[in-house]
């Protein structure tokens, strides 16, 4: 029975993540809080000119994040524009300016949306020097911001939240680089390629010719998953047999995507000195994950819709080695984290099945979310939850001993407004501006009718939430989408970061208040239920109308 | 507050950090993995290439078309799944069809593929598995389901003048179970099956 394989696969994943949770979570807590530097780090700090012992205010921390990210955008942009003169470019020309902008923003914001087809666009030097580097550092930036927020909860009356350059460096050197090396070796053993030989032309046994690509894929694939980036070396992403050759490498990639985001609640619990708080956040994340996975698996196994029924199963856009169950788990993982990698084509999912990746992203990617961004997103929702619970009983809300006053709740409210505004405004403008609409309908949309609206909605949902997956039939390499999605990715990444760091600063400056009988306990099942409820209700209220116009209408007709 | 000098300093730090990270993560790391792959796992690192009598004939991981110059299926070879990569199994243009579940073109294509297989393989529509009628995500899927391999046995053995039992036994021996017994789906690698078929003796 198919369902048993789905259950067994999910249980295996849960077991592996449970085994990783404590050691990885504690390891991250220890090294982000440590006051000792490795020798190589001391050399690095001297080289770049920072004092690792200096503590930053939230404004200073933010300026460092923004300076580093802006330079990253310029750097990746410049490398693409210079592709024609770089070695190992496979003869590909310079990337056009609009696409270079979109791609630079995409990789710096940890989105990894790809308006282009990498197979015929990006040479090895752009992939390695530009894209792979951002795969590491954009993930490290996300975790750094999350750790800064956790320090805000943990520290009393300091007003500082850590040192960005130290957090960035440790995230890369102590976590992501060693993890990526290990993962790359495992992927290599599974058949992922790693060479610099370009294309190999072969004559097949029927006398035809086939041109087989090469590339430094394993090294990139490892950090693409571990850093929840998701930008494929090839157009088909993790469906390409050279990126993901077997069912077990697919499972391994799923574990890589979830390892850090699902362990960060432990890091949080350890740093704030109450591990039960970590379990509560983990519980909320896991509950949403299980429900979402179940829904997508059942929708795809059900195979509703004209084409899946005609074919006898929803196998369009799915690989035989992964099957429906392996595709549903990968798709759920990729869109509940900020990865956006795909091992099946979401555009060809059943109508209601295709709605699930969208819903996953619309939840704000908090279950467990991207590296760092998932934790800070969920902590913002926890702040909203204690506020709502406080309203119900008429008490000033507190979370982890910190008062959630007007300033804190304003910041949290602005945070949850950012991405819905970008998604809905972007989608609406695509159809409201006459010239844009004509271009979107004639050039970009691949599937006509309701599904076409879903393609545009998916694109803005993915960009604003920094996911990067797509209803990939959409032709996004147009001036409108390159620009609008680029802006959505930038604002969707950095406005929340500004707000999170502001919150971290406000919390860090506060003293803690002692818990009383009236304090809402935030480590019990009751709170987990409230948190899940708040997450789901906010999303449902915001997005129900537009979902009703797209996938719901298609699926129920 | 932020003085211009302080900002300029931040950008200097950021620039130096970016350059050092680029050297470590963009050059040293991928080259070290490349060196490791080429020394320790050269077969995998270079694409699991299959060497035939006349040199490299493909990769065990990358699917191929077994069609004539016009794209029509050649009955003496086991057929791969439909492909949306270029004109079919173009390994420089990996892609799915991205057609949605209600897309008229996809519905028509499935009907066409179904009647073509019914005719060529002499089977009923109910016997044809979904993977035979649908394009994969990569367009390079090297594998088909065991069911799809089995319904092709009669056609292939007739075209080659081989006993059905011989070809059938070959197919059964080439079915790969799920990874670790429960991950993914059972598969048959089409290129490897066809290579084994070619090496069978006594072909008419």
TrEMBL record, chain A:
Subunit structure comment from the entry: The system is composed of three essential subunits: KdpA, KdpB and KdpC.
Any matching Pfam family: KdpA
Source organism per UniProt: Cryobacterium zhongshanensis
NCBIfam families: kdpA
Keyword Membrane: yes
Transmembrane feature ranges: 61-79, 86-108, 128-150, 171-193, 247-267, 279-299, 375-393, 414-436, 484-507, 527-548
Matches recorded under InterPro entries: KdpA (IPR004623)
Location in the cell: Cell membrane
Domain of life: Bacteria
Keyword Cell membrane attached: yes
Sequence similarity: Belongs to the KdpA family.
Keyword tags: Cell membrane, Ion transport, Membrane, Potassium, Potassium transport, Transmembrane, Transmembrane helix, Transport
Membrane topology: Multi-pass membrane protein
Name of this protein: Potassium-transporting ATPase potassium-binding subunit
Function as written in the Swiss-Prot or TrEMBL entry: Part of the high-affinity ATP-driven potassium transport (or Kdp) system, which catalyzes the hydrolysis of ATP coupled with the electrogenic transport of potassium into the cytoplasm. This subunit binds the extracellular potassium ions and delivers the ions to the membrane domain of KdpB through an intramembrane tunnel.
GO CC field: plasma membrane
Molecular function per GO: P-type potassium transmembrane transporter activity; potassium ion binding
TrEMBL record, chain B:
Pfam families attached to this UniProt entry: KdpC
GO cellular component: plasma membrane
Recorded topology in the membrane: Single-pass membrane protein
Main subcellular location: membrane
InterPro entries with a match to the protein in the record: KdpC
Subcellular location: Cell membrane
Positions of transmembrane segments: 12-32
GO molecular function: ATP binding; P-type potassium transmembrane transporter activity
Record bears the keyword ATP-binding: yes
This protein's UniProt keywords: ATP-binding, Cell membrane, Ion transport, Membrane, Nucleotide-binding, Potassium, Potassium transport, Transmembrane, Transmembrane helix, Transport
Assembly: The system is composed of three essential subunits: KdpA, KdpB and KdpC.
Family designation: Belongs to the KdpC family.
Task of the protein: Part of the high-affinity ATP-driven potassium transport (or Kdp) system, which catalyzes the hydrolysis of ATP coupled with the electrogenic transport of potassium into the cytoplasm. This subunit acts as a catalytic chaperone that increases the ATP-binding affinity of the ATP-hydrolyzing subunit KdpB by the formation of a transient KdpB/KdpC/ATP ternary complex.
PANTHER family found in the cross-reference section: POTASSIUM-TRANSPORTING ATPASE C CHAIN, POTASSIUM-TRANSPORTING ATPASE KDPC SUBUNIT
Descriptive protein name: Potassium-transporting ATPase KdpC subunit
Organism: Cryobacterium zhongshanensis
């Amino acid at each position: 029975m198919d369902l048993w394989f789905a259950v067994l696969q999910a249980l295996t994943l849960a077991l592996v993540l449970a085994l990783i949770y404590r050691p990885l979570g504690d390891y991250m807590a220890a090294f982000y809080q440590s006051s000792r530097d490795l020798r190589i780090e001391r050399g690095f700090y001297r080289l770049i000119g920072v004092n690792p012992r200096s503590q930053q205010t939230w404004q200073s921390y933010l300026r460092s994040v923004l300076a580093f990210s802006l330079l990253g955008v310029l750097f990746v942009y410049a490398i693409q524009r210079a592709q024609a003169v770089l070695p190992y470019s496979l003869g590909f020309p310079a990337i056009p300016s609009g696409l270079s902008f979109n791609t630079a923003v995409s990789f710096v914001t940890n989105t990894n949306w790809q308006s282009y087809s990498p197979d015929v666009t990006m040479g090895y030097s752009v992939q390695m020097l530009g894209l792979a580097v951002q795969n590491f550092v954009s993930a490290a930036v996300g975790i750094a911001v999350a750790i800064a927020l956790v320090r805000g909860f943990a520290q009393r009356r300091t007003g500082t939240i850590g040192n960005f350059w130290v957090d960035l460096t440790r995230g890369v050197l102590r976590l992501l680089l060693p993890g990526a090396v290990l993962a790359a070796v495992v992927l290599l053993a599974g058949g992922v390629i790693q060479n610099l030989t370009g294309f190999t032309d072969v004559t097949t046994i029927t006398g035809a010719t086939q041109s087989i690509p090469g590339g430094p894929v394993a090294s990139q694939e490892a950090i693409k998953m571990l850093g929840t980036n998701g930008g494929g070396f090839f157009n088909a992403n993790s469906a390409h047999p050279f990126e993901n050759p077997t069912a077990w490498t697919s499972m391994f990639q799923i574990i890589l995507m979830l390892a850090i985001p699902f362990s960060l609640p432990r890091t949080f619990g350890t740093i704030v000195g109450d591990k039960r708080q970590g379990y509560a956040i983990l519980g909320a994340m896991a509950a949403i994950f299980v429900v979402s996975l179940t829904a997508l698996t059942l929708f795809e196994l059900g195979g509703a819709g004209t084409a899946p029924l005609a074919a006898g199963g929803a196998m369009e856009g799915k690989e035989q080695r992964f099957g429906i169950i392996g595709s549903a788990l990968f798709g759920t993982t990729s869109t509940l984290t900020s990865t956006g990698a795909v091992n099946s084509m979401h555009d060809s999912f059943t109508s209601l099945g295709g709605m699930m990746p969208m819903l996953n992203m619309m939840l704000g990617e908090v279950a467990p979310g991207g590296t760092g961004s998932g934790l800070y997103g969920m902590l913002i929702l926890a702040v909203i939850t204690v506020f709502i619970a406080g309203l119900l009983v008429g008490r000033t809300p507190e979370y982890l001993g910190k008062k959630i006053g007007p300033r804190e709740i304003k910041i949290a409210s602005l945070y949850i407004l950012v991405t819905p505004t970008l998604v809905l405004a972007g989608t609406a403008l695509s159809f409201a501006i006459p010239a844009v609409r004509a271009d979107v309908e004639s050039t970009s949309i691949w599937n006509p009718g309701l599904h076409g609206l879903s393609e545009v909605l998916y694109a803005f949902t993915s960009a604003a939430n920094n996911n990067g997956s797509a209803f990939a039939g959409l032709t996004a390499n147009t001036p409108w989408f390159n620009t609008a999605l680029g802006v959505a990715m930038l604002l969707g990444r950095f406005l929340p970061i500004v707000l999170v760091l502001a919150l971290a600063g406000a919390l860090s400056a506060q003293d803690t208040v002692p818990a009383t009988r009236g304090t809402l306990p935030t480590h019990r099942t009751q709170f987990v239920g409230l948190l899940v409820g708040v997450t789901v209700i906010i999303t449902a209220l915001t997005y129900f109308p537009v979902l009703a116009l797209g996938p719901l209408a298609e699926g129920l007709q | 507050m932020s003085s211009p000098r302080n900002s300029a300093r931040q950008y200097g730090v950021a620039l130096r950090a970016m350059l050092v990270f680029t050297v470590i993560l963009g050059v040293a790391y991928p080259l070290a993995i490349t060196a490791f792959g080429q020394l320790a796992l050269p077969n995998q690192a270079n694409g699991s290439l299959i060497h035939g009598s006349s040199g490299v004939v493909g990769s065990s991981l990358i699917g191929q078309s077994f069609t004539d110059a016009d794209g029509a299926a050649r009955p003496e070879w086991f057929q791969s799944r439909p492909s949306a990569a270029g004109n079919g199994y173009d390994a420089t243009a990996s892609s799915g069809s991205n057609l949605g579940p209600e897309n008229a073109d996809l519905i028509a294509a499935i009907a066409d593929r179904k009647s073509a297989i019914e005719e060529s393989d002499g089977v009923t529509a109910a016997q044809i598995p979904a993977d035979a009628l649908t394009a994969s995500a990569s367009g390079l899927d090297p594998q088909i389901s065991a069911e799809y391999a089995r319904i092709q046995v009669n056609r292939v053995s007739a075209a080659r003048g081989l006993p059905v039992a011989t070809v059938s036994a070959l197919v059964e021996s080439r079915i790969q179970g799920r990874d670790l017994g429960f991950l993914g789906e059972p598969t048959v690698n089409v290129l490897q099956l066809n290579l084994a078929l070619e090496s069978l003796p006594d072909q008419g």
